[in-house]
Amino acid sequence: MKLNRGRTGALALAGVVALSLTACGSDNPTGSTETTGSDTGSTSSLSGELAGSGASSQESAMEAWRAGFQSANPDVTVSYDPVGSGGGRTAFLDGSVKFAGTDSALDSDELAQAQERCFGAEAVDLPVYISPIAVVFNVEGVAELNLSAETIANIFNGTITNWNDPAIAEANPDATLPDLAITTVHRSDESGTTKNFTDYLSKAGNGAWTAEPSGDWAIEGGESGQGTSGLIQTVQGGQGTIGYADASKAGSLGKVSIQVGDDFVAPSEEGAAAALDVSPRDDTRAEGDIVIDIDRTTTEAGAYPLILASYLVVCQSYDSQDDVDLVKAFATYVASAEGQAASESAAGSAPISDTLRTDVQASIDAITLAS
């Protein structure tokens, strides 16, 4: 699917996902592969190891990026530990990994820390994974529900406690709602998905959500799960449970269609793309640091504003040429049309636009050897 963007610039259990990478021509460490005549083999001179960690929401996409890149890069191994966005940013800032995946961009304190980690240069956030967050539930006999942001907020803040509550019943006249207690499920770890979810509740919930948007769950009560997989397993294992997760991991669980204007919109890559279309960039960031300010209150037809813009975080300088070449090659493949198509197929993400990709590539091209 080819998407055009508007104001965006025309837009698990924690385990190691081992990604074997090969590279392109030795004079072009960007992730592209050139062939001439009957020669279809790689001419890459890249070798070594590249470690990353972070958002569990990116796990399926990382696996797809591995598969697509692996055939061209036999002498490089990339590992990705899906420990969660907070854990990934911490590992990146302390130098344990060369890149991080995060559903929440680096904040001002983290950007300041990154200057030391990046050998005097800046760290940049590159939006490479755009995906809907699904509100998932497990209620026998109910496969889908329509809910407003206000109702969702009141469920997760403990105001609405039963599945046959009038606020739920009014929006779902054809559903047979049981007299059953609601059990909310949240992430137990610091999570960019949680920050995006609570940002949506805060901005679109008509005042029902009063806690500050945060990667750490702020409301007492309910159950919790570690990482995306842990949350999904907890929702699946209960009855009357409700949680939130990257839509690619929802499986057979029921999914909520959220109210946008007068309509209810189900999570989809098309809806995520439409929401991104109407969302501006954060113009307070440094050059090359590309952060999306998602419009959570849009009434654009078909838009699904409960999305995450997930980032690849890299330094703009590294202390070895090998690291420079490996990071540039991997990041280039991830942002490429081929890499984005692989992620779309594996994880249902919305590919970034050509214009946004051009800007992301310019940031990647600016990565240099520290002086």
UniProtKB/TrEMBL annotation:
GO terms under cellular component: ATP-binding cassette (ABC) transporter complex
GO molecular function: phosphate ion binding
One record GO biological process: phosphate ion transmembrane transport
Keywords: Phosphate transport, Signal, Transport
Position of the signal peptide: 1-25
Ranges for domain PBP: 44-338
UniProt keyword annotation of Transport present: yes
InterPro entries: ABC_phos-bd_PstS (IPR005673), PBP_domain (IPR024370), Phosphate-bind_PstS (IPR050962)
Ranges annotated as biased composition (Low complexity): 30-53
Span list, region Disordered: 24-53
PANTHER family: PHOSPHATE-BINDING PROTEIN PSTS
Family membership: Belongs to the PstS family.
Protein name: Phosphate-binding protein
Phylogenetic lineage: Bacteria, Bacillati, Actinomycetota, Actinomycetes, Micrococcales
Gene behind the chain: pstS
